[in-house]
From TrEMBL:
Signal peptide residues on this chain, from the entry's feature table: none
Protein name, UniProt field: ABC transporter, ATP-binding protein
Highest taxon, organism lineage: Bacteria
A GO term for molecular function: ATP binding
InterPro entries (alphabetical): AAA+_ATPase (IPR003593), ABC_transporter-like_ATP-bd (IPR003439), ABC_transporter-like_CS (IPR017871), ABC_Transporter_VariousFunc (IPR051782), DrrA1/2-like_C (IPR025302), P-loop_NTPase (IPR027417)
Alphabetic keyword roster: ATP-binding, Nucleotide-binding, Transport
Cited Gene3D superfamilies: P-loop containing nucleotide triphosphate hydrolases (3.40.50.300)
Domain annotation ABC transporter: ranges: 2-228
Pfam family of the protein (one): DrrA1-3_C
Organism: Lactobacillus iners LactinV 01V1-a
Length: 297
């Protein structure tokens, strides 16, 4: 478990983090979200002691120290592979820093190449790989030593949908093994899908913190997704409907002024008969993100 208390950080006279507090649980995935420049990477660098800060950061109840690095896997936003190295050279170079020996690395590397579906051989040079496969190699380097705390800075950046799914599968696998996983992403759909908990940073301050489902529900069940023969213009005129929007999949999304209107809208649309789709939900995390980020502008 990772605990951060009263984390503050300044670069010269510019303060970039203000009293940041949150906890990342074992066997949970925490999404750290925020605009570019909000402080997410600085939080990661503070956890890893790449920068000096004020506050307390602890892992499993003790201050994070040099002895904890072997139990941490870190995927930086700026990929750091050496293009002239072969895959096995690159992995060995980084895994040795985590205390692994060559025999153990060789035994595990072949399995990792299969698990992440890397297109290439361990003797291929990094520069010969596609960007997606290079990213998978970096992920292998992050995870091969079986870390307990995993920090992933934009792990899906630049990946096609198939490779995103491969990476998601492995992140969920690490969660199932009891690891503490923290990752940042600008795609809120990924955060909603994967994360048990979410922390939003805006201008260096925590503005949202909690269980992902609970955070969304705090904003009320003010969205309805419906399939109906009623014209969208007529739906928009129903009392309590602020806006009606036709989605690409044929559903209509209704934005409500209050969740309480859901009951009467259901009665109006169903007329006591079967209705194919009527789903009342809170705003998406993407909508909440835009709202909270906009408040800080």
């Amino acid at each position: 478990m990772l605990t951060i208390k009263q984390l503050n950080k300044s670069f010269g006279n510019k303060q970039v983090l203000y009293d940041v507090n949150f906890t990342a649980q074992d066997g949970h995935i925490l999404g750290l979200i925020g605009k570019n420049g909000s402080g997410k990477t600085t939080i990661f660098h503070s956890i890893l002691k790449f920068v000096e800060y004020s506050g307390d950061i602890s892992i499993d109840g003790h201050p994070f120290g040099a002895g904890d690095y072997n139990s941490v896997g870190y995927l930086p936003e700026e990929r750091s592979l050496l293009p002239k190295f072969k895959i096995k050279q690159q992995i060995k170079f980084l895994a040795r820093l985590k205390g692994m020996d060559d025999k153990e690395i060789d035994k595990l590397l072949a399995d990792w190449m299969l698990r992440l579906e890397v297109k290439g051989k361990v003797d291929d040079k990094i520069k010969s790989l596609s960007k997606g496969n290079q990213q998978k190699v970096q992920m292998i380097a992050t995870l091969i030593h079986n870390p307990q705390l995993i920090i992933l800075d934009e792990p899906f950046s630049g990946l096609d949908p198939l490779n995103v799914e491969i990476m998601k599968r492995e992140i969920l696998n690490q969660k199932s093994k009891g690891a503490t996983v923290i990752f940042s992403d600008h795609n809120m759909s990924n955060v909603e899908e994967l994360c048990d908990d979410v922390v939003m940073i805006d201008n260096g301050k925590v503005v949202l913190n909690g269980n992902t489902y609970d955070v969304r529900n705090k904003f009320g069940l003010t969205r309805i997704y419906v399939r109906t023969s009623m014209a969208i213009e007529d739906l928009a005129k129903i009392e309590g409907v602020e806006k009606a929007e036709l989605l690409n999949d044929g559903r209509i999304k209704l934005y409500l002024t209050s969740a309480e209107y859901g009951y009467t809208i259901f009665d109006i649309l169903s007329q006591g008969k079967y209705i194919q789709t009527f789903d009342q939900e809170p705003p998406t995390l993407n909508e909440i993100f835009k709202q909270k980020a906009g408040e800080g502008l």
